[in-house]
Amino acid sequence: MRNRLATPCLLCLALIAATTPEALGASKHFRISYEHFNAYAAKAADLYFKTGQAGEKNILSHLTAISAIYAEKAYMVQTVADILEHMAAKRDRTYVRERLAEVKRESLAGVPQDVKLLADLVENHENQEIRDLGNLVVNEIRVFERNTENL
């Protein structure tokens, strides 16, 4: 009985080990980041229209824009990773891997500056709601960066 179960389990483990990291659902991580960034952009825009202070409007405008930009970056990486996950032909997979490497480089190009700028903008802000939202955006950018680097 044990031998009958061991063979299929070993075969499954071998298939999982042989599968490329992209095929283990990387696109799902980027889909979640895409959704988070869209939610943060909507929250920042909502707060923007509720405040009357110019300084807060400036920060919220920046949070809205950067969240929307990173939502699009996450969507782009998610789409290319999803295509790669579903490619069958080796030649096609090679082509898509090369495109994914380009998308990865472009997506990560400004991350350190964006994180520093946002962290500096919201770090000591007196409005707790803006500070919390800014920290959420910074943390999601870091998650996006880590996931992108792991492709």
Form type: elongated
Which structural class is indicated by helix and strand composition? mainly alpha
Average pLDDT rating? 84
**How many beta-strand elements?**
0
Rg over CA atoms = 20 Å
Largest sheet: none
- Number of discrete helical segments: 6
What share of residues are in beta strands?
under 5%
Helix-strand string: HHHHHH
Report low-confidence residues grouped into runs of 5 or more: 9-23
Distance between the termini: 40 Å
Provide the helix percentage.
over 70%
Give an account of the 3D structure:
- The chain is mostly helical.
- The protein is 84% helix and 0% strand.
- Helix 2 packs antiparallel against helix 3, helix 2 runs antiparallel to helix 6 and helix 3 runs antiparallel to helix 5.
- It is elongated, with a radius of gyration of 20 Å.
- The two termini are 40 Å apart.
- 25% of the residues are buried.
How would you summarize what this structure contains?
The chain is mainly alpha-helical and 151 residues long. The protein is built from six helices and no strands.
Structure keywords:
single chain; 151 residues; mainly alpha
Task: Reconstruct the topology from this structure.
Elements: H1 2-18, H2 26-50, H3 54-85, H4 90-108, H5 111-122, H6 128-149
